[in-house]
Amino acid sequence: MKKGLKISFSLLMTAILIFSLGACSKTESLKKVRVAEVTRSVFYTPQYVAIEKGFFKDEGLDIDLKTTAGGDKTMTTLLSDGADVALVGSETSIYVYAQGAEDPVINFAQLTRTDGTFLVSREKKEDFSWDQLKGSTFLGQRKGGMPQMVGEFVLKDKGIEPHKDLKLIQNIDFANVANAFASGTGDYVQLFEPTASVFEKEGKGHIVASFGKESGSVPYTDYMAKESFLKKNKDTLEKFVRAIYKAAKWVEENDPKEVAEVVQPFFEDVDVEILASSIERYQKQGSFGTDLILNEEGWNHLQDIMEEAGELPKRVDYKTLVNTSIAEKALQNK
Questions:
Q1: Of the candidates 149, 77, 151, 85, the residue with the CA atom closest to the CA atom of residue 117
Q2: What is the tens place of the pLDDT at every residue in 83-127?
Q3: Predicted TM-score (pTM) of this structure
Q4: What is the pLDDT of residues 47-80, one digit of tens each?
Q5: Which of 69, 91, 113, 272, by CA, is between 20 and 30 Å from 300?
Q6: Cα Rg for the chain, rounded, in angstroms?
């Protein structure tokens, strides 16, 4: 009996060892991709779904994700080889190129296709109209960043001259804008979700308009990499895009509450109901797109917005900073 137990125990230990070695081998075989995201936002829901649902691992990738608040910090991280891929506004690639970068940053996939910010008023507005902003203190985003430029584009379209009709504050660091408004600065503020909905629930502000709806389609946040990395890692980036595509499709086809439950680990302090309503807002205004290809019309529209804001250093040809071949090949083999 004891001999039989000894043999069974030996077989069990052997099985455990084989399983452990197999698991280690599988983990070690995953290729690590370091991703720097410009902010942590529900706006990037497909990315978090791809991580939580294992779509990246299915493609043989291990994602090392870090948040580098602000476009300037994110681009610095990418340029200094602190990340392989950046998720940030397309405008940053133009700024880097205009400074004469020897290794330019290339946009290879588009994650969001609208602005992701909402206009939040300190006071509740039963019948909001844009002209109510005239004479108010507006807490905007960083000068030269996509939120600020799209914000100004929309305000001008509504007959408001941002630098004349408003007391415009835009010298507060990106990560501290929400805190500044919560502490009493400004009558209006431009915020991403889920912060906008959290403020509304806590009575700190009220969502009165969507900059995404008002500005229309624009290549707002893209995945990009240095040209040198892109040339050497096309297969890896194709796998990366395929995982994002699977996630974007999953988000498109599922209920906001179910999506919220999947991404909640990335927003531990936010109630799942708030996450669900935030995701639903983005779904309804078409912020999440399954077409991850940045087209030329969108690229030109982006530069028009930058030019209108006085932030375009020079116009850059579409093919110079946009590479669609990776996304096109990834989507062909999805």
A1: 151
A2: 999 999 999 999 999 999 999 999 999 999 999 999 999 999 889
A3: 0.85
A4: 999 999 999 999 999 999 999 988 899 999 999 9
A5: 69
A6: 23
